[in-house]
Amino acid sequence: MISWLGERPKRAEAPRLSVRAERRATTKVDITELVPDLLTYLGQAAYFELGMFESLSTAVITAPTLAAKEGLSLAAGRALSKHHGLIEEIRRRDGEPATVMGPFVPALDRFRTATGGEDWPELLLSCYLTGGLLDDFFIRLSDALPGDVGPRIAHLLGEHGGADVLVHELSAAIAAQPALESRLAMWGRRLVGDTLLVARSAMAVSQDSRIEPVFTELIAAHTRRMDGLGLTA
C-alpha cells in the first residue's frame, strides 16, 4: 500500500460553476494577460512533468503484474519526454533549468504528496486525472505564448501516449474489485479541486473574469475522463 501522508488532509473542493460560465465554455477568451512570462511558464510546466514522471515511476514499481509494469513504463517515459522538451525550451533562452524550476518545487512537491493516493488504484487515477487536466491547462496557456514556442509546446504536451494504459489498468482494477468504483469516484472529485489550485497559481493574476471559462473547459474534460471510467464526476 502506498501511504506518503499518514492521515489524508482535507482536499479543496471543486469550484461550482455558474450557468453563465457553462454557456461560455465553448467560447475562447483572450488570456494573454493571464499568462506569466515565458520562463516562469516553462519552469512550472517542466517541474510538473518531472513530478509526473516520478509518480508514474512509483506506479511502475508498485504495479501488481509484469504486463502493468511494462505498459506504465510507456506513460512514465512519455512524461519524461515532455519534461525534456520543456527543458530544451528553457535552454534555448539561456535559462538554467534548475534555477528556473526551483521556485515551483515546494508547492508542486506538496501537491504531488497530497494527490499521491493511499494505494495503487488511487495513484493511477491521480496520474491520469491530474496529468490530463494540467496538460490541458498548459496547452491552453500556450495559445498566448510569444512567437512559435506556443505551437511547439502544444504539440509536445498534446501527445498523450500512455494515457490509454492508465485507463486500461484502472478499468481492469474496477472490474476485478467493483467496490473500488465508489471510492475512486470520490477520490477523483477530490483531485480536481487540488489540481485547479495549481492551475490558478500558474496564472499571472488569480482573480479575473476570464479565468472562469478556462476552468469550465478544464472541468468539462475532467468529467469526460471520469465518465470514460464509469466514475461519477
What does this structure look like?
This protein is an all-alpha fold and 233 residues long. It contains ten helices and no strands. It has one domain: Ferritin, core subunit, four-helix bundle (Ferritin), CATH 1.20.1260. Helix 2 packs antiparallel against helix 6 and helix 6 runs antiparallel to helix 8. The longest helix has 27 residues. The protein starts with 18 loop residues before the first helix and ends in a 5-residue tail after the last helix. The N terminus is likely disordered. It comes from Cryobacterium arcticum. InterPro entries: Ferritin-like (IPR012347), Ferritin_actino (IPR059125). This is Ferritin-like domain-containing protein.
